[in-house]
Amino acid sequence: MSLEKKLYKRERKQISSFLYDWYNQCMLFPFSGEDAFPQKMTEMAPCSPNDTILDMCCGTGNSTFAIRKNVGINAKIIGVDLSRGRIKRANIKNTWTNLFFLKADAAHTCFKNNYFDTVFIPHALHEMHREMRKKVVQEAHRILKENGRIIIFEEDLSDKRKSRVMQNIWFGYWLPYPINIEHITFHDMIRYGLINDVETIGFTNVKKISMFQGMMQIITGKK
């Protein structure tokens, strides 16, 4: 079992899937909260109403529900997550017929090549070491159609001192590993840069949108 999966399972034993929504609501409070944050993200990177869309690392489905609200009833939307508990929770909350949730490893999904028009990866890559990040982005590239889009919502390191200090305190990045298991992976992601990782996989027209005084970013690219 990879280090990422071991850390993932250990963390989720400490924070149950039932409490996951509450936990994210607290952590994302400075960024409009768990309810408004995904909606704001999807509004800035809209999809076409007839797209086939994958939400990778969907958690309990809040980002997936935000996508559904923006694209309507004609799109086909699938959310996947490694946690069985989170997927169970997402299915309980799901009230739409064109939205489905599956337990799956984002680095090795069961989908065919060239299947999706759009792949979202919301607020998950900062939890992974670079090799795992690249595997997840590579998998997104494989299952996207030609000219399909990848859309990544992720943390960033602000160039504003006050925002950077607040961010490090709020997310606990000042705490060393293993007290905060994301201490290493977040700074590793910032060091290499998501744009560089996405371009390395083969995506083109890669762009970055900064949000919340540079503490959050949206990365988009085309296959």
Describe this structure in words.
It is a single chain. By secondary structure, the chain is of the alpha/beta class. It has one domain: Rossmann fold. It is built from nine helices and seven strands. Strands 3-2-1-4-5-7-6 form a seven-stranded mixed β-sheet, with helices on both faces. β1, α4 and β2 form a beta-alpha-beta unit.
Give the SSE map.
Blueprint: H1 3-14, H2 20-27, H3 33-44, E1 52-56, H4 62-71, E2 76-81, H5 84-93, E3 99-103, E4 116-122, H6 130-143, E5 144-155, H7 161-170, H8 182-192, H9 194-201, E6 204-211, E7 216-222
Parallel strand pairs: 1-2, 1-4, 2-3, 4-5
Antiparallel strand pairs: 5-7, 6-7
Short account of what is shown:
The protein has 223 residues and is an alpha/beta fold. It contains 9 helices and 7 strands; from the N terminus they run αααβαβαββαβαααββ.
Key attributes of the depicted protein:
single chain, 223 residues, alpha/beta, Rossmann fold, seven-stranded mixed sheet, 7 strands, 43% helix, globular
The helix fraction, in percent, is: 40-55%
The CATH class assignment is Alpha Beta
CATH topology: Rossmann fold
Strand count, sense and barrel status of the largest sheet are: 7 strands, mixed
What class do helices, strands and sheet pairing give?
A: alpha/beta
Into how many domains do the coordinates divide? Answer: 1
Mean pLDDT: 84
Write the H/E string, N to C. HHHEHEHEEHEHHHEE
**Silhouette:** globular
